[in-house]
Amino acid sequence: MSAEAALKIAYDANLDLAKIAPTANPPVCKVLDYGKYVYEQAKKEKEARKNQHVVDVKEIRLSVNIDTNDFNTKVKAAQKFLKGGDKVKVSVRFRGREMAHMEYGREMLANFAEACEEFGIVEKSAKQEGRNLFLFMAAKPAK
Fold it and tell me: Structural domains in the chain?
């Protein structure tokens, strides 16, 4: 139908003529209350934003000479973060002469990843940046 005829129908019904799909050929229009339409669209977007989960990156710092109980405490914290759906950045900081023994840090990160494998997967394997060694873990996808 022509645009004039559609406008007349909308005017007679005391409503608005809104383009729903302006890129279609021919464009698709709808007779509706435009204020109500905009309000409902905003309401849908707000509801969608409310249901979204923002993934945070939590950091856990270790040192090369950490004791077993301290290590287990850090593992439990990481497991809690992964259960919550967050990503975990595990970093090992080397000081002084510890730089000569990077293999201990890599071994520790491997043990850490193995301890957390029930709740998360390794996203980025161990990578060295300066005096730090990093490992990124992400929560396992829900089945």
Answer: 3-51 (3.10.20.80), 57-139 (3.30.110.10)
